[in-house]
Amino acid sequence: MRRITRMIEKLQNIGEQKCVEEEFKLLQSIALEIAEAENSHDALSVVLRNLCEFTGWIYGEVWLSSPDKKYLERHMAWHTDSRKLEEFKEQGKKFTLPMGIGLPGRVWSSKKPVWAPDAIIQRDISCASVAKDSGLKTAMGIPVIANDEVLAIILFFVREQREEDERFVNLISSIVVQLGATIRHKQMEESLREREQLLHAQRLESLSKFAGNIAHDFNNILTAIIGYTELLQNKVKEDDSLNVYVQRILGTTERATKLTQNLLMFSRRQSSNPKPVNLNMIIKCAEHIFLRLISENIKLEISLTRKDCIIMADSGQIEQVLINLVMNARDAMPYGGALTISTDSGEIDNEFVKTHGYGKKGKYALIMISDTGIGMDEETKKKIFEPFSTTKETGKGTGLGLAIVYGIVKQHQGYIHIDSKPGEGTICRIYLPLVESEVEEKKPEVRDTVNK
Fold it and tell me: Which positions make up the signal peptide (predicted)?
């Protein structure tokens, strides 16, 4: 009997040791992943997914406080494959909780882990009826704290009723301590990045206004020059030697006029005629221009979504954006490569805004233009939308191509984002607001013009 008891104890010790080893591996894995996460959102997502998968708790949520710290809102959720859990997840988006109310609110106010053996009876789940249909019973909430401030609340749910598991609580607690420090560090990085983005946006706005004022005044001067030159042209006979100089003046003023028009486009003062248009149709109609712009050693691939991509836009200006970006991609691939233009539709939500540092919530059409070219470094990326900023040789281009792209996108209430690294090509993403409106039957006019 004693031998059997010792064998049982030995097996229990072996099982205990294995559990400790697995938990240690989990801690190491999570520590590495959250350290490599790009932002606090990704760090929270890593912890939520890993803990649910490791512990068998089938559903998890992260709640964050509102900017004014008055209530909590659901930030993200993870669950195993289940239609009913997906319904519970969708319902959770609709709720906000003040301090002390519901399981998240109680964790927020106490700053301590809270175990709810039967969360539905205790009314700790916001949408209790849906949770009941999903079979969820026991819930556990834990705060993520740094410098005595609750940064997030993480909840876990299972379908069976469980009494408080001290080992599980201790495991989660040890992870969220490190998570809190990581999130605080990443929030500081995000705040710095957002400040840099704001300063960059303000700089571009100042440049836009300055360029617009210069272009407007210069346009007035050009109007006078063109007027007097045309009067002179009427006085000079065609065979007069002075006529050559008159034509040169008119040719020069024509180029100057195009330059002012480009500056006005960057400053968003160019006249626009927005109508409901199908983004995919604009790209299809301009495809032959793209093919003529690129060289034979560049492969063009166009992949258009089947979803409706109806935007309120000046189709000619959107074509100009695409042409300028195609030309930039071509110049970045002097020895050939691949150029891909694709479309999709999606949503800018709170998570997107927090991750990217910009955006207004809503549904958007997405244009992606990617190339396999030489790419660019961070310093170049910071200046690419500034007028007259160019990496090309003197005499090749005006340095206004991407400035015009930026101006047109902003004029259409959109956003543009560039991802690029030296030697790894470039991906340009443009977000344009979707509209619910019928498109005119007439195909958008394609202007065979290239802005160099």
Answer: none
Question: For 189-231, what is each residue's pLDDT tens digit?
Answer: 767 766 766 666 666 666 666 666 666 677 777 788 888 788 8
Domain end: 156, 186, 216, which one?
A: 186
Angle at 114 between CA 110 and CA 118, to 5 degrees: 140
280 and 419 in a single domain? The answer is yes
pTM score over 0.70: no
Question: Which residues have a Cβ under 8 Å from the Cβ of 205 and sit 6 or more positions away?
Answer: none
Q: Which of 58, 38, 54, 34 is nearest to 46 (CA)?
A: 34
Q: How far apart are CA 82 and CA 87, in angstroms?
A: 9
**Contact partners, residue 160, CB within 8 Å, separation at least 6:** 137, 138
pLDDT tens digit string along 145-157? 888 888 889 898 8
396: amino acid identity, one letter: K
Instruction: Round to whole Å and give the CA distance between 40 and 43.
Output: 5
Count Cβ atoms below 10 Å from residue 267 Cβ, excluding itself.
24
Q: Supply the CATH number for residue 63's domain.
A: 3.30.450.40
Question: Cα separation of 257 and 83, whole Å?
Answer: 61
As given in the structure block, the two tokens for residue 284 are: 């299809």
Percent of the chain with pLDDT over 90: 12
224 in the same domain as 96: no
**Helix intervals (H) in 236-314:** 242-266, 279-293
Instruction: Collapse the DSSP code of 243 into the 3-class scheme (helix H, G, I; strand E, B; otherwise coil) and give the result.
Output: helix
On whether both 404 and 324 belong to a single domain, the answer is yes
Q: How far apart are CA 423 and CA 411, in angstroms?
A: 32
The enclosing domain of 300 has a CATH number of 3.30.565.10
Residue 367 buriedness (CB in 10 A; 0-12 / 13-18 / 19+): buried
Orientation angle between helical segments 401-411 and 242-266, nearest 10 degrees: 50
CA–CA separation, 41 and 49 (whole Å):
12
Residue 140 and residue 192 in one domain? no
Q: Which element (helix H / strand E) includes 11? A: helix 2-36
Tell me the residue range of the domain where 201 lies.
187-270
Show the CA angle centred on residue 326, arms to residues 325 and 330, nearest 5°: 115
